[in-house]
Design goal:
Layout (H helix, E strand, L loop, with lengths): L1 E5 L14 E5 L3 H11 L5 E7 L2 H12 L3 E8 L6 E7 L2 E7 L8 H6 L1 H5 L4 E4 L4 H14 L3 E4 L8 H6 L2 E2 L3 H7 L8 H8 L4 E3 L5 E5 L2 E5 L12 H14 L4 H15 L12 H21 L1
Parallel strand pairs: 1-5, 3-4, 7-8, 8-9
Antiparallel strand pairs: 1-2, 5-6, 10-11, 11-12
Helix pairs in contact: 1-9, 9-10, 10-11
Amino acid sequence: MDLVASSTRRPITGETLHGEDFQTISGGKGANQAVAAARLGAKVNMIGRVGDDDFGTRLQHNLKQEGIFLKGVEPVTDCTSGVAVITLAEGDNSIIVVAGANSCVTPDYVQKHRDLIAQSDIVLTQLEIPLETVEETAHICEKYHIPLVLNPAPAHPLSTSLVSKATFITPNQVEAQHLISQVEEDNIEALFEQWGNQLIMTDGKEGVIYSADGRIQRVPAYQVNPVDTTGAGDTFNGAFAYGTARSYPLERSCQFANAAASLSILKKGAQAGMPSKSEVEDFIRAEEEKDMEMDAMK
């Protein structure tokens, strides 16, 4: 559950500020990504855990309302649901995550629901669950030849084994900086050289960077006026996984996910602004028409 406080600026150490607004909003990276894909029309199975508390009940209800299948979601007795404490200020966010029941998404729990993975077109995971569980998920995906999109957030070093099993790895710029320590040279280019076509890096207002035919390519971002950037990365990942599962070319998947993420930040809350497929396609079409008009005026 996202506990969201809005303020004109962030407090400095030891300072108390008057906030402008407070909300509790269903969230979590895995759930956000599931909602993003479901809104686009995907059939989504969620594997995860919640606490046996009010937040857990509300989180499950929200997923059901989004049409997400919850065979793989179970409450944990005597455990709180995970929370993210989010500060919105100065047009951006800062977040503290407390794992709660997410820590109980163990390798054995994922194995219990391996049939859901085996029947999937694609699997999307992130690092708000234990790393050994992500490793087990990757192992199951490899066994059943299921493409795996790994969003390495929150940032954490990745084992060579995990990297080798992931079809795509999708860090943002900050997370990529944590990953470059795993290559010999301390720069993003070296990361692309080693991981090649696996690496899809989001770069905020600068768009998305990926590698094709040994060359680094960039898909520009769409320029919008953000209301709340919380969940933009999750929207990108859900939309990228959707596009990949639909066999979109890599550049189109990145463009489609870029557009979805741009639309998502026009409303407050991680899930509130997540768009439908038609909204994304209409947005892309409108932006292309604008570009054509600009070119004609030159």
